[in-house]
Backbone:
């Protein structure tokens, strides 16, 4: 999918369907396989493994305490997967485009620019963290908690310094709120088909699992 408006809409619907029921989560997973870059997310390295490891641990604790740990794990895993896919599909300029399209060039521009700056900052901080870990491992093959804590502090400090510099540049350029921006969107047939199919996913969330997979006699 390419249209950020339909990507945001679809991810929200997929998340709602997954949260509603296990049936919705299963249908949402198949939607992600068909219309989202799920392959890039699954091969994303240790970060995605840590996310699902955390969900697995919480699911086990919920099961031990007498709750529906399996259903919780399935639903939350699909929601996390949808969020990861959305991050891969979104471009840093997309929050600005969507916000201006929704709220106009005053409030929409301010909100969108803030969202784009945050998204860019997270991406750059991620690169800093990866490079920092490579440098730490070059000196210490097995870094301890102290080295990792120092690295995280340095990345945070660098991110705050970068934010301050961006704010200073905006002030120098005379920015005081609002702006003029005309967003353009590219909507493909795949975007339209995916948006229609996601409605079916939402409907399936309110159906019994046996009805969705035609298991009822």
Residues:
């Amino acid at each position: 999918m390419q249209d950020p408006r339909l990507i945001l809409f679809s991810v929200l619907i997929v998340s709602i369907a997954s949260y509603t029921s296990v049936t919705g989560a299963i249908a949402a997973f198949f939607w992600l396989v068909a219309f989202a870059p799920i392959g890039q997310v699954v091969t994303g390295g240790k970060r995605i493994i840590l996310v699902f490891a955390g969900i697995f641990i919480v699911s086990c604790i919920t099961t031990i305490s007498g709750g529906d740990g399996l259903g919780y794990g399935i639903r939350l895993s699909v929601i996390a997967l949808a969020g990861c896919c959305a991050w891969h599909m979104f471009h840093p300029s997309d929050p600005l485009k969507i916000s201006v399209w929704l709220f106009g060039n005053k409030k929409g521009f301010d909100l969108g620019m803030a969202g784009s700056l945050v998204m860019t900052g997270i991406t750059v901080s991620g690169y800093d963290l990866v490079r920092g870990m490579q440098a730490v491992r070059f000196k210490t093959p097995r870094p301890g908690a102290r080295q990792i804590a120092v690295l995280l502090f340095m990345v945070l400090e660098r991110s705050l310094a970068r934010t301050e510099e961006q704010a200073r540049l905006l002030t120098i350029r005379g920015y005081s709120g609002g702006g003029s921006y005309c967003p353009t969107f590219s909507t493909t047939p795949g975007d339209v088909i995916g948006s229609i199919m996601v409605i079916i996913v939402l409907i399936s969330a309110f159906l019994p699992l046996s009805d969705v997979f035609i298991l009822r006699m």
Notes: Residues 2 and 188 are 7 Å apart (CA to CA). The radius of gyration is 21 Å. The chain has a mean pLDDT of 82.
